[in-house]
Amino acid sequence: MRRAIHGDRALAYWGDPTTGEPVHDAAGALRAWRWNVATVCAVAADYTPVPTFFCGGSRNANRFVD
To answer: Alpha carbon 44 to chain centroid distance?
Structure first.
């Protein structure tokens, strides 16, 4: 048994490419598709139910990929 999380639906938001702060009503270079790092790390660290599989992608994956 495994748990799957669709990151683009459950974790993602449009954020400032530099600070990571959520942005609204911005376009192009003013925003980047990001995942909430704290949430990803908390879910990945929780081995109690079952292993977790994440699907999707974000521009800040380097912050949690390990």
So the answer is: 11
pTM: 0.74
Euclidean distance between CA atoms 13 and 21, whole angstroms? 9
Close Cβ partners of 37 (under 8 Å, ≥ 6 residues apart) = 20, 60, 63, 64
Strands 32-35 and 12-15: antiparallel
- pLDDT for res 26: 67
Kindly tell me if the per-residue pLDDT of 24 is higher than 80. Answer: yes
Domain count, the chain: 1
Domain that holds residue 49: 3-63
